[in-house]
Every structure is written in C-alpha cells, then in structure tokens.
Design goal:
Distance between the termini: 23 Å
Shape: globular
Number of domains: 1
Order of helices and strands: EEEEEEEEEEEEEEEEH
Structural class: mainly beta
Strand content: 35-45%
Length: 217
C-alpha cells in the first residue's frame, strides 16, 4: 500500500514518487505451509517496517484449491498498525492481480463486458465502480484462451477498481474513494478471492464463487 502519512511515510509498492521507498520493507517473520490432498495453504506473519520501525504487523492466510473446473486462491490479510496511520487517497494501491502481457485482453464484470475508460493513476475518481468481481479473458498468440478474476468481499472497505487493460492489472483499491484511517491495535481485514481458468470466461462459476465468498467471515 502506498503512501502512508505518519511519522515515517512509506511506499510499500516500490514506486517512490510520492513517499520514500528506501528503508521501507515488508519482512517475513514466520511461514507455516500445509499441504493436503485437497489444497495447499500457508500462514505468513510479516512486519511492515520503515527504517527499522515496525508500522504494521501482517498476518496473511492463503489457500489454493481446484474448484468448478477453475483454480481458486483465497487470501485473508489482517493488518494491525502499531500506531495511528493514514492510508492516503490514491488511484491504485493494495492488492493487485497482474495478467500476462502477451495476447489480447478483454475485461468483464458480472454485468458483462466492462467498457469503462482506462483509469488515470493520478485521478482516483477515474477508477471503475465497485462490483462483486472483475475478470480478464485473454487469447494468446497460439490461440489458447486463459483468464483470471478477482472477487471482492462485502466486508472489505468501500472500493473502487483501478483496472487498466493496457497494464494488465486488476486492482480493488480501498483508498480510491477516500483516505483510510487506521487505529492503533485495530486490525484492517481484507479478503480477496482469485480465480484462474482456461478457456472462455466462466461467468456462472464466478457468480457462484462470489456468492459463496460473500458468506466467508
């Protein structure tokens, strides 16, 4: 996420134009993987640090499974600030999916083809409206069709989407509507489900998985 307004501003995206990146690191403290016949999962505990000062403690729970002829990755981030922090308003930030650069690309939402103009990284208001999911469908040079989707969660903060077909990114951005203030010791919980698929966009499966995901606490 980038940038932060606090005693130690930090850009953890690595862009560096509006907040410093030097000495800003996300450091893994512990990783616990688990493999079963149905899934692969892990829990990662990380610290977000600015010049050695811990700003946020992160716990990430991730699990990947094959479902409905697609592959599903569930991600739950718990970000606990050690002091009062402000996540500045910005057009892009936070969790982001990047698609392959080769081949063409078509963007979709639950309503059908998403024909919104490409957003500006300097204008948060140009981001796309919220939806339960956005997806990209690609045809590669060899004719193979692939795609990916990001499913939002109703308990996430208010979201706009910095989805840029030319950059091949799908980014549900919680700081595009407004800055987000975090209280010391109170976790910010973010839930995202990523779906990848071969062939054409499986709209029925995405709608079903999104409805299921909305009930995950």
């Amino acid at each position: 996420m980038q940038p932060y307004h606090c005693a130690d501003d930090a850009d953890f995206w690595g862009w560096g134009e509006h907040a410093p990146v030097k000495g800003r690191r996300i450091v893994n403290q512990r990783l616990r993987p688990r493999i079963t016949a149905e899934s692969v999962s892990f829990r990662a505990d990380n610290t977000w640090e600015a010049e050695g000062i811990v700003l946020i403690r992160e716990r990430l729970d991730a699990i990947v499974r094959d479902r409905e002829e697609v592959r599903v990755l569930d991600l739950i981030y718990r970000l606990t600030p050690l002091e009062v922090l402000t996540l500045s308003r910005w057009a892009f930030s936070g969790f982001c999916l990047r698609a392959r650069k080769d081949g063409d690309i078509r963007m979709y939402s639950p309503a059908g083809p998403a024909k919104f103009p490409a957003p500006s990284h300097l204008k948060p208001e140009s981001d796309w409206p919220d939806a339960s999911w956005y997806a990209c469908e690609q045809t590669l040079v060899d004719g193979k069709q692939i795609g990916a989707a990001v499913l939002n969660h109703p308990k996430n903060p208010r979201t706009l989407w910095h989805n840029h077909p030319d950059i091949r990114m799908i980014n549900p951005c919680i700081v595009a509507p407004a800055e987000v203030k975090l209280k010391a010791g109170k976790p910010l919980v973010l839930r995202y489900r990523v779906v990848t698929f071969d062939g054409k966009l499986p709209k029925a499966a995405l709608d079903k998985l999104a409805a299921e995901w909305a009930n995950v606490r």
